[in-house]
Amino acid sequence: MWRTTYGERTLDGAEAVLFAETLLNMLDEIRRSPFDSYCTGVEIFDRLTLGQKISVLSIVGKGLLRKDVPTIEIMEVIEGAIAAVFEHLINLIGVEIEESESGFGWREKVIAARMATGGRDITESTCDDLEVWIVEVESLAEVILWDTYYDDEHLYLDYPMKDFKCLKRTAGISDNYHCGVVDDLSGQDIDGKLKEIRDLCLLIVEVS
């Protein structure tokens, strides 16, 4: 379960399928990248080791796609991983637009997910303006993420500790938000966790 801006929930229907398929594609890309060079543009995720990336994506996958998992505590490294998945989706759409023979598959999945989450004024799948699709994808991210606090830690660093805590409380950020760490997996642990995430995502996709 996940504590989203719409309450505690897991993703369902077209929203879950889109996230699961994007995560599957992202895992493949991470594994193909030499020397842990895969980057999304989300700094807090990109600076993680391969083992940490797989570890946090496992937390994200189970929290968003499995109803039997207790509600995950919101931390910046976890929200950053979710943001990274959506950034990967934007990249996939960009490639789809550039390679016109690729069709409209990712864009159609975004439209289905937007409709499932009550979206309005949704663009057509034939739209080839990436900026428009960035807005559509960000709309999907916004119903999961609280805000871009995962990218804001530097804004608080110059404040005294008591003011720092007050600002975080005002913003609705827990004291542990910026302190969370994830396991750094290696070897067989990475392979095992990858299989676990892939099996979960494939189950979501195949059932749809």
Key terms:
two-stranded antiparallel ribbon, 208 residues, mainly alpha, 58% helix
Report what the structure shows.
By secondary structure, the protein is an all-alpha fold. The protein has one domain (2-207). It contains eight helices and two strands. The chain has helices spanning 13-32, 43-46, 50-65, 76-98, 105-116, 130-142, 161-171, 187-207; strands at residues 2-4, 7-9. The protein has a two-stranded antiparallel ribbon. A hairpin with a 2-residue loop joins strand 1 and strand 2 (7-9).
Helix and strand run? EEHHHHHHHH
**Helix percent band:** 55-70%
Overall number of strands: 2
Q: Rg, please?
A: 17 Å
Short description:
Helices cover 58% and strands 3% of the residues. By secondary structure, the chain is mainly α. The radius of gyration is 17 Å and the shape is globular.
Strand and helix layout:
Layout: E1 2-4, E2 7-9, H1 13-32, H2 43-46, H3 50-65, H4 76-98, H5 105-116, H6 130-142, H7 161-171, H8 187-207
Antiparallel strand pairs: 1-2
Helix pairs in contact: 1-3, 1-4, 1-5, 1-8, 3-4, 3-8, 4-6, 5-6
